[in-house]
Design brief:
By secondary structure, this protein is an alpha+beta fold. Helix content is 50%, strand content 18%. The chain has three helices and three strands. The protein has a three-stranded antiparallel sheet with strand order 1-2-3. The protein binds zinc ion (ZN).
Length: 82
């Protein structure tokens, strides 16, 4: 697989999240990518494809979901549904 082919796979999994800053050597080798929000992230090439990509982005997404849930619960208790 070439660096371009790897990037296509990456875009498929994490659309618009990364800019490639290193060369793809193999799935078992580390590669450096730039998260558009958090900067450089270095991990095994396979980890980016199978995992959540940038750890900070994954954390933010979790926190966002949690805060949405909290808002819903707050609203429900205000309306006396809980
Ligand atoms: Zn990120």
């Amino acid at each position: 697989m070439s660096t371009e082919e790897y990037f296509v796979k990456l875009e498929d999994k994490h659309p618009g999240m990364f800019v490639l800053s290193g060369d793809y050597v193999g799935m078992d080798y580390k590669i450096e990518l730039q998260c558009k929000q958090h900067g450089p992230v270095t991990k095994l090439a396979s980890t980016f494809i199978s995992g959540p990509g940038c750890g900070k982005c994954a954390y933010n997404q979790k926190m966002e979901k949690a805060s949405q849930l909290l808002k819903l619960l707050e609203q429900a208790s205000k309306e006396g549904l809980c």
